[in-house]
Amino acid sequence: MNSISLLKALGYLEVILAAVALLVLLGRKQLRDFSALSGFLAVRISSDLLLTALHSHGVRHRLGDNNAYSCYFFTYWVSFALESVLALLIVYGIFRLAMAPLKGLQTLGMLVFKWAAGISIAVALGSAFAPHMTGVNYLVAAISQLQRTQSILTLCLLLFVTFAIRPMGLSYRSRIFGVSLGLGIMSTNDLVQSAWMAFNPRMATAYNSINGFVVCAILATWFAYFALPEPKRRLIVLPTTSPFLRWNQISEALGDDPGYVAIAGVPPEIFAPAEIEVMRRASIKMVTPFPSPAEQRVTASSAV
Amino acid sequence: MKLIVRSLVVALAVTGAIASSYAKAPTAKAGKTSAMPVPTCAPGSGSCGFGDW
Question: In terms of domains, do A236 and A279 share one?
Answer without folding.
Answer: no
